[in-house]
Amino acid sequence: MIDLGKTDAALVLEDGRVFRGEAYGAVGASLGEAVFSTGMTGYQETLTDPSYHRQIVVQTAPQIGNTGWNDEDDESGRIWVAGYVVRDPARVPSNWRSKRGLDEELANQGIVGVAGVDTRMLTRHLREQGAMRAGVFSGDDLGGVEEMLERVRSAPTMKGADLAGDVTTAEPYVVEAVGERRFTVAALDLGIKSNTPRMMAARGIEVHVLPLTSTVDDLVALKPDGVFLSNGPGDPATQAHAVELTRGVLDRKIPLFGICFGNQILGRALGRDTYKMRYGHRGINIPVIDVSTGKVAITSQNHGFALEGEPGEEFTSDFGRVLLSHYCPNDGTVEGVRALEVPAFSVQYHPEAAAGPHDAAPLFDEFVTMMGEGR
Description:
This is Carbamoyl phosphate synthase small chain. The protein is of the alpha/beta class. It contains ten helices and 20 strands. Strands 10, 11, 12, 13, 14, 15, 16, 17, 18, 19 and 20 form an eleven-stranded mixed beta sheet that branches. The chain has a seven-stranded mixed β-barrel with strand order 1-2-8-6-4-3-9. A two-stranded parallel sheet has the order 5-7. The longest helix has 12 residues, at 240-251.
């Protein structure tokens, strides 16, 4: 059990609130944006999701680490979170696939965390005040509150942060289709999760994952049946190159599908602005409604920015009419875009859902149908 009498670690928020606990994982200091994730499971996938780059993740589920850490469920080659905050970490992991404890893996990868925090109180605070800059401090870096607060307030904000270039692949690589190859897709890596090309490969798609610096000519040289825009971190307003590349794809009428960050990129390519949400959507139980059918899907999400507009709104873009196709009933946030005169659509959530529900998995089948119609 965590001994709450100890105060050898602290989470310091930019508004001056301090939450004390014990060091968990690596010892030191780490700065980032404090956000909360409501997933009851899937902490390994959360930690290795590149979309969490430069964010300090607060887990709302009180018990974390029960199933340890395995070598199969990573969504990328490393842990991307800037820091980690939990209530009650497992003393001994128990799972047949577990190779080591979560605390051991956090320490191995240099991720500074804090345990024993009242995460319920912390989550309520972030929900009311909004996501904000924060720091996790322990060991020799645990100093006076004013000293730690000064370090937090000197850190850059997430608004205006250009982070996709930090997480994109350095070199192109290919994920082979399972069985017969039916289609070829060029996937722009803005922070892609491992399960996404795996889901496409299972549908007979050969996925060519390309760096963010790729040009439209690089994509076209592959003679793809479709183009995919991945999830990723940071402010979509910084991604002028990705937006211009997307406009080139739309101009050529190549079937296009985007998720999460890719939804924001497509929206901006179609002429819509984006804004920073108060505290975002992060979890695996978030409802989304399709305005065309009224169907509700429970989805996995991780985003702090969103597209401007009203659910069901139609507008005219440089590429014809566009529908804001999905929304979250919790707060009215736009959750999807569909071009009505060129073959392109995107959603704000994660249909690959690892971990999470599978309600949205058929979107990959819709992409397959769109590519088939494009031949």
